[in-house]
Write a structure and sequence with these properties.
6 helices, mainly alpha, 84% helix
Amino acid sequence: MTGRQADHDDGVLERHLDALLDELVVAWRGHPRQIRHQMAEAEAHLRDATAEGIARGLDEPDAEADAVARFGPMRALAAAEAQRRRRSMPQVVVDCLVSGWWLGALGALAVGVSGFFRWRWY
């Protein structure tokens, strides 16, 4: 197989991974590192499942098809990952309160430091 053919392998596994990438890009909107990690994990899982199928006596295309069938639909996986990454309203409120507290503490520290220097040098 030439390099060009290897780059454009249209096996079941490759098409499934391409579909996963498409779904993750749409679902996650601009989180390339998480997409790369999810893709690497999915590919490793599918390749391991394909190897298990071959060890059970299936030929490679059938082993890939079996691995893809057991893996499940891409849209469901991408939606589950996007849902897992969403924050609930109570989490957002707590984050805002904590951020506000830190901002207030930093402001109080700045006022205290400026008062100290004003007292010290005047």
